[in-house]
Design goal:
about 10% strand
Length: about 375
């Protein structure tokens, strides 16, 4: 495998259909060096099945000669964004945790999520939401957010990050630089935010500063145009937002991961090859293409052509791969294939179900 293909593959995160490793995902791992996989509800049937699926995927990576295990990720926030439901613990929306206002409770939720995910071999949780819920018309954030107070969101998010990461699962603060005050679903259209820099500094950015202080392993970008920062492209594709603001001003040195490049906010305007290249040029490290095999191949080929032609420097490619590698070394090594029996035993443990119910009841919300 050419060095450019291998390195591009380590920056790609792929999704697929089915409860077993599909021919397409095996091809991405084997022939294109894809180093990360994301699971959705379509891939999840039971704790034993998820553990076996992760074992199968990791076996493909080993057989392909990848020198590090795959990074397997999932969106497991609680509430309506939870890919793994009963028999795993079903959590209320994070708004319920916000109503408690307790950092201890938020940390315990992170610890509980980590215990169940780790037992299945999942080492990256795309949580917590660090968006501040300031727009009641927002169709995508709402009760996924801890609340409308930036300090509360920052404190509880940082506590949840620590709970996850101190128990072996990388956290992801999302969606930078803030998706809370939009009235458009970025899965369908490209939202725009009109706020001044002063407002961003007061509301949207403080929770991400707290996440960085807490040592969050990854930060996910928003497919949102923030006119004050860059009126021409969404944050995901903007060097001003990603390299300028997040890397240089906020001094973040962890993994920057894009939201799914198949979401319409990006995919309606840029083909997968160009969008992957623009995201990489902006400073993003890890690029999820979550469903379509042809788009995954196009994204990878776009990265390969860009690095071989000088559109992406080898130095930048190596730096991005090094950040992904550090995350893997911290959270994936030493690797042991998950035990299906242990995965079942960890799912929905009595004390975790009781905690989820207690949080929901005290907040007056349903699990």
């Amino acid at each position: 495998m050419r060095d450019s293909v291998r390195k591009a593959g380590q920056r790609l995160m792929v999704g697929f259909q089915g409860h077993e490793a599909s021919a397409d995902v095996k091809k991405m791992i084997r022939d294109y060096g894809a180093g990360s996989v994301i699971l959705f509800a379509r891939n999840v049937a039971s704790p034993e099945q998820v553990a076996e699926l992760v074992r199968e995927l990791q076996g493909e990576a080993r057989d392909a000669g990848q020198d590090l295990p795959l990074l397997v990720a999932v969106d497991q926030e609680g509430g309506r964004v939870a890919r793994m439901r009963a028999p795993w613990t079903e959590w209320p929306p994070m708004r319920a945790v916000g109503r408690h206002g307790s950092e201890d409770v938020a940390r315990k939720v992170g610890e509980a999520l980590a215990a169940e995910l780790h037992a299945c071999g999942i080492r990256l949780d795309f949580a917590p939401i660090m968006d501040v819920d300031t727009n009641p018309k927002n169709p995508i954030i709402g009760d996924r957010s801890f609340g409308s107070d930036p300090d509360l969101v920052g404190r509880l998010g940082a506590a949840m990050i620590r709970g996850l990461q101190e128990n072996g699962v990388a956290a992801c603060a999302k969606h930078f630089p803030g998706h809370g005050d939009t009235d458009v679903d970025s899965h369908l259209e490209l939202p725009t935010i009109e706020h001044s820099r002063a407002r961003l500094e007061e509301v949207e950015l403080p929770p991400f500063r707290k996440a960085i202080e807490a040592g969050v392993a990854s930060i996910m970008t928003a497919h949102v145009v923030v006119r004050e920062l860059d009126a021409s492209v969404p944050a995901t594709l903007s060097p001003r937002v990603i390299d300028g603001l997040l890397r240089r001003e906020l001094k973040y040195d962890g993994v920057i991961v894009t939201d799914d490049l198949e979401m319409k906010a990006v995919a309606k305007h840029w083909a997968p090859g160009p969008s992957a290249v623009l995201a990489a040029q902006a400073g993003c490290d890890l690029l999820p293409v979550c469903a379509t095999h042809d788009m995954q191949v196009a994204a990878l080929e776009g990265l390969v052509k860009a690095v071989e032609s000088g559109g992406i420097s080898w130095k930048a490619m190596d730096a991005a791969c090094a950040r992904v590698r550090r995350l893997k070394e911290r959270f994936v090594l030493p690797w042991r294939d998950p035990d299906p029996k242990a995965a079942r035993a960890a799912a929905g443990a009595t004390e975790r179900v009781a905690l989820a119910r207690s949080i929901a009841e005290q907040a007056g919300m349903a699990v």
